[in-house]
Specification:
By secondary structure, this protein is α/β, with parallel strands linked by helices. The chain has helices at about 15-20, 25, 40-50, 70-75, 85-95, 115-120, 135-145, 165-170, 185-190, 210-215, 230-235, 255-265; strands at about 5, 35-40, 55-60, 80-85, 100-105, 125, 150-155, 180, 195-200, 205, 220-225, 240-245.
Length: about 270
């Protein structure tokens, strides 16, 4: 039997995770052992648990206790609190409209090392300073669907475990291995046997269909931040510059759309 607690006092400190703490506060860089994140929707929560993330508490509509959330709650110790209220109250409390009316606060897992993430990997995505959580989540979803082995991020970008990022990713942030890169990442990837391909529209860029890319044993596809794209220094440090040909005077694709095209062409897809 779930430990169901109907919300009576909106100021209860147990609800701070959902109602008052920012995602950066949940990240809690000063005390990483107690860092948290919030997952939204039964699908995302289930995939987070499949990935080894540990629930701390739930916040949901009452109907989900015996409905969509029942299978998830059955996987948890009975002592975990399950706070409930109507969707209207939950939306007012959290400040967001809830997808599927269910949230879960979870322990943030320890990040794997770069070497662990790259063990056995031959196709990886490198994301330089992707700031928008929606774009980040969409890139992860494309990476999972289109055969990329891992996603590597620079520290200045958005957090894959932000609620919006994990929701847009459909929980694939818990399925695709990922970690953060050191500042000298092009050199590190080269030392690990990876060829780096910077996505940028330049006169000397290879087309995405160039056979040299597909024939490369270990390839890192490098995508840049929204608007400005990759830094010139990053492009200079990569082995290839690669473009998706444009028509109708369109200068570029959104980074999430560009990632889908690139991963489809270069990732591991089964016939």
């Amino acid at each position: 039997m779930a430990n169901v607690i109907e919300i009576q006092d909106f100021s209860a400190p147990e609800l701070d995770i959902y109602a008052r703490l920012t995602e950066n506060q949940l990240l809690n860089r000063a005390d990483p052992a107690n860092a948290l994140f919030v997952a939204e929707s039964p699908l995302v929560i289930g995939r987070a648990m499949d990935g080894g993330c540990v629930p701390v508490s739930f916040l949901m509509e009452p109907k989900h206790v015996t409905g969509r959330g029942a299978e998830i709650l059955a996987r948890c110790p009975e002592k975990i609190p399950v706070y409930t209220a109507s969707l209207e109250v939950l939306t007012q409390l959290t400040g967001f409209h809830l997808t599927r009316g269910m949230l879960c606060a979870m322990r943030r897992p320890e990040l794997p090392t770069l070497e662990q993430v790259l063990t056995g990997a031959t196709r990886v995505a490198v994301l330089e300073n992707i700031m928008n959580p929606t774009n980040l989540g969409a890139v992860f979803r494309s990476a999972a669907a289109l055969g990329m082995d891992a996603v590597l991020l620079t520290s200045a970008g958005s957090d894959p475990l932000y609620r919006r990022a994990s929701r847009v990713s459909m929980g694939t942030v818990f399925q695709v291995p990922w970690t953060y890169l050191p500042k000298n990442w092009p050199e590190v990837l080269h030392s690990l046997g990876f060829t780096t391909a910077a996505m940028a529209l330049r006169k000397d860029s290879l087309r995405l269909s160039d056979p040299r890319l597909g024939e490369t044993e270990k390839l890192a596809v490098v995508l840049g931040t929204e608007g400005d794209g990759l830094a010139p220094d990053t492009i200079a440090r990569c082995d290839y510059t690669v473009m998706i040909p444009m028509s109708h005077a369109v200068d570029s694709l959104n980074v999430a759309a560009a990632s889908a095209v690139a991963f489809y062409q270069l990732g591991h897809l089964e016939d």
